[in-house]
Amino acid sequence: MSDYKTGLEYALQQDQNDELKAYRSQFHIPKDKQGNPWIYMTGNSLGLQPKQTKAYVNQELEDWANLGVEGHLEAKNPWLHYHESLTESMAKVVGAKPIEVIVMNTLTANLHFMMVSFYKPTKTRYKILIESDAFPSDKYAVESQLRHHGFDDKEGLILWKPRKGEELLNYEDLESILDEQGNDIALIMIGGVNYYTGQFFDLKHITKLGHKHGCNVGFDCAHGAGNVALNLHDSGADFAVWCTYKYLNSGPGSLAGCFVHERHAHRKDLNRFTGWWSHNKQTRFNMRDDFDQLPGAEGWQLSNPPILSMAAIKGSLDMFNDVGIDKLIAKSKKLTGYFEFLLNQLGEDTIKIITPSNPKERGCQLSIQVKNADKTLHNKLTEVGIISDWREPDVIRCAPVPLYNSFEDVYRLVEKLKGITR
Ligand SMILES: Cc1ncc(COP(=O)(O)O)c(C=O)c1O
Ligand SMILES: Nc1ccccc1C(=O)C[C@H](N)C(=O)O
């Protein structure tokens, strides 16, 4: 039996008792034409802007205006080392060691760079296993890697599919695939939290299974970073990539994160694409001919990074550091549990939640199938100030984000949904 209760009074009381309630006022919450704040449920697509972001970005704009090229060394946060100031906080967010983490490039680009190193096909072991409902960019990326290495992108791709009539993936099925075809598979690449169903996979279990069969294992954690306890180091995964514009609130198209497990930190035998930013910092500006690779994830960088985007990430990570990922996840579980409780009151004739009901197997997002719904339902929700997203064929995704969503938001969302579906 859950302790949740129906009624607005209960929601308001929960907000009152919420240890993290002060954080909501530290975000810009967009408003409708009447000046009412939107009920913003799409932090799984683009996180809201922290109010302090502007000051972080302005600092760099001012230093650039006042110092020009001298800013590389003389800026308040010298640009030459700026990325290093993100590493420790980002490592905490994803449960990794600092040497394992780097902020660089964008998400799909990082996925490709990781595959340069960790997709090492041979004539007999060249297949890639992904989840059947992987985010399209991930699927396109792995297919293009297969083609790049001269393989057929249909034959070379193995899909981990849900059972007939089910939405979620089952580990027994993954085991069966690996028992039958493990020797053919060079790489397992799974979305750590599936973008469509919200299923949070057991990264450690998948990694163990993959390694047992001699496969490299990587995860796209776009929907996991800042949302769930990824514990990337303990998972043992070879690599992971994620973006910072969703739960990490760092702005549209902002830079991405990348994890390479510590055991690969000093390897020189891995193929990789390099640039001057992967070269030893001490001698980088000597413009030497011979390449001297940086250890750890930093050694996968190519270019000097865009500081303005990093400033937004720094502002956001400072907030994550302040709250602590554990407190954030504790609130998230409560808020999403409450959301699930209210949705279930609508009854099975109206809705079906496809996201796992076990809080350990999901983050804050719930993916909801509304009976006989089409995109007009989503449009109606938008008209009444609820920003959610629609994914074909029939799913509304809503993510109450613990840093800025309230119990009242969740209550009002479900009330509106009730009104529309009646
Ligand atoms: C799982 C996943 N992979 C890839 C992408 C695309 O990332 P990007 O456009 O930042 O490369 C997204 C979101 O856009 C995503 O959710
Ligand atoms: N970056 C974007 C730009 C434009 C529109 C959507 C996105 C998303 O991030 C979508 C998200 N990855 C999703 O899970 O649907």
TrEMBL record:
Pfam families: KYNU_C. Gene3D superfamilies: Aspartate Aminotransferase, domain 1, Type I PLP-dependent aspartate aminotransferase-like (Major domain). The modification N6-(pyridoxal phosphate)lysine is found at K246. Catalyzes the cleavage of L-kynurenine (L-Kyn) and L-3-hydroxykynurenine (L-3OHKyn) into anthranilic acid (AA) and 3-hydroxyanthranilic acid (3-OHAA), respectively. Transmembrane segments: none annotated. Its cofactor is pyridoxal 5'-phosphate. It comes from the Bacteria. Pyridoxal 5'-phosphate binds at L107, T108, F135, P136, S137, D138, D220, H223, Y245, W276, N304. Its EC number is 3.7.1.3. It catalyses: 3-hydroxy-L-kynurenine + H2O = 3-hydroxyanthranilate + L-alanine + H(+); L-kynurenine + H2O = anthranilate + L-alanine + H(+). The gene is kynU. Belongs to the kynureninase family. This is Kynureninase. It is an enzyme of class 3 (hydrolase). Pathway: Amino-acid degradation; L-kynurenine degradation; L-alanine and anthranilate from L-kynurenine: step 1/1; Cofactor biosynthesis; NAD(+) biosynthesis; quinolinate from L-kynurenine: step 2/3. InterPro entries: Kynureninase, PyrdxlP-dep_Trfase, PyrdxlP-dep_Trfase_major, PyrdxlP-dep_Trfase_small. NCBIfam families: kynureninase. Keywords: Hydrolase, Pyridine nucleotide biosynthesis, Pyridoxal phosphate. SUPFAM superfamilies: PLP-dependent transferases. Homodimer.
